[in-house]
Design a protein that fits this description.
By secondary structure, this protein is of the alpha+beta class. It is 14% helix and 32% strand.
Amino acid sequence: MRFSSTVRSAALAVAAVFVLATAAYASTATTTMTVASAVASNCSIAAAPLSFGTYNGTADVHASAAVTANCTSTTQYGITLSSANSYKLNGTGSNTTYLNYVLTQSDYSTSLAGVLVAALAATGTGANQSYTVYGKIASGQTTAQPDTYSDTVTLTVTY
């Protein structure tokens, strides 16, 4: 029984401290504070390389590459393409020959003319949104010399 009376005495002492502490602060005042944040429109874009492989001039060569845009939810955006070499794959060094190519948004039939998605009215979701760029080198470009040909295409997301 001694343990129980010791615990009871300690509990009463703690309660007395709280009562005295509360009595010392008998009045209160309150206020509110605003907690806020802003979400800015933001987009990012990434693209995989597009490699046509080997071209022999006798047949069209097709390739495709994935493009991913990620924009904050409800952000309107568009994607454009810009070729450093006017959509020509240039040879290296003193090789001045080139291969013309086109990039399209679908089945290789319509040139993009610089726009990945015609009349783009895409809206960001906050998650990755995927597109495919299709490329074609038409057959019959027989003046190209054996070499490695390349171009750089810049993809720009405008929002």
